[in-house]
Amino acid sequence: MSIKLCRKCLKKLQTVAARGGRAGSRLDKVRASKLAARARIKKAKTLTFDGQTLRVAQWAKKIGTSKKTLYRRIDEGLDDAAILYPRE
């Protein structure tokens, strides 16, 4: 399986690899792991609400919010309905 990373994520992972495959600190390892997981989520994440399934970018456009906002809500562990239509 191949994972596509954004340039920023790729640069950070390359920095870790340049250190001999070992991260400089535990925090570097955690960051690298989170970046790879986030890339996988971004690549395939779809949300379903009221019987309609769309990718995050499509939902963002449909409901008039940013992809960044939706991904932040995903990172918070909310369910699909709460991600798309949070309580005010």
Summarize the structure.
The protein has 88 residues and is mainly alpha-helical. It is 60% helix and 9% strand.
How are the secondary structure elements laid out?
Layout: H1 7-18, H2 26-44, E1 46-49, E2 52-55, H3 56-63, H4 67-75, H5 80-84
Antiparallel strand pairs: 1-2
Helix pairs in contact: 1-2, 3-4
Based on helices, strands and strand pairing, what is the structural class?
mainly alpha
Span between termini: 40 Å
The major sheet is characterized as:
2 strands, antiparallel
Give the helix proportion (percent range): 55-70%
Strand content is 5-15%
Total domain count: 2
Residue runs with pLDDT of under 50 for 5 or more positions: none
User: In angstroms, what is the radius of gyration?
Assistant: 16 Å
Secondary-structure element string: HHEEHHH
The number of helical segments is 5
**Strand order in the largest sheet:** 1-2
| Bulk shape | elongated
**DSSP strand count:** 2
Average the pLDDT over all residues and give the rounded result.
Answer: 77
